[in-house]
Amino acid sequence: MEHIREEMGLLTQIIKGIAAQFGEKCEVVLHDLTGDYEHTIVAIENAHITGRRMGDCGSNLGLEVLRGSVKDGDRYNYVTQTKDGKILRSTSIYLKNKEDKIIGAICMNLDISDLIMAENALKSITMHSLDQETEEVFVNDVSDLLDYLLQQCQNEIGKPVSHMSKEEKIKAIQFLDKRGAFLIKKAGDKVCQFLDISKFTLYNYLDEVRGERMR
C-alpha cells in the first residue's frame, strides 16, 4: 500500500468494526499522514470523545513520530487525558508503505473515566496507573497544536522569552524541532515571533541543533 486512499474501503471497515466492538466510549481515528498535518483525519468513529471531526489535525505524538524523534512510533495501551478531563486508554498504530515510510495511522481512544471512578475492584480492568500518563493533546486546529508546543517550550526553559539567553533560545528551538513543530506549515513565522528572532537567526539556530537548514 503506497497511499491510504488505496485501501480506504478496507481501513474504514476496520475502524467501524473496532468502534462497534468497544461501543460508543471508543473513538477510532484514521489519519492520512502523506499530506499537510493540518488535515490528517480522513475517517473517525465516536468523534464525541475528543470533539474532533474529519479534516482536523493529528496530535502532538504524531508530529514526534513524523519528525523521527520517536524510533518506534507504535504505542499501545497508554493513558492520556482530553482537554475537558476525560481519561483515555489509547493505542496508536502507524501504517507504512513498501519503502518503510509512514503514510497513516489508526488510533483508538477508549474513555475509561467511568471505570476510574468505579470500585477498586474495577481498577484492574483499566490496566493503567495514573502516574504513567502520556501527555497527548487533541485539537481541531493545527495552530492550537503549535500554541500548545510553544507553551510547553516555555515551560521547559522555565522563563519568559524576554529573559532567555541565546543558548536558551537554541535549546527552545531544539525542543520544538524534536517534537516536530517545524512540520507544521508556517511554524517558522510563529516561532520567530514567539522567540523574537529573525528568520535568518532561526535557520542558523536550526543548523546548530540538527546540522541542516530548514527550507
UniProtKB/TrEMBL annotation:
Domain YheO-like: 11-120
The protein, known as: Helix-turn-helix transcriptional regulator
InterPro entries linked to this entry: DauR-like (IPR039446), DauR-like_HTH (IPR039445), YheO (IPR013559)
Chain ranges of the Transcriptional regulator DauR-like HTH domain: 146-207
PANTHER family xref list: TRANSCRIPTIONAL REGULATOR DAUR
Pfam entry (one): HTH_22
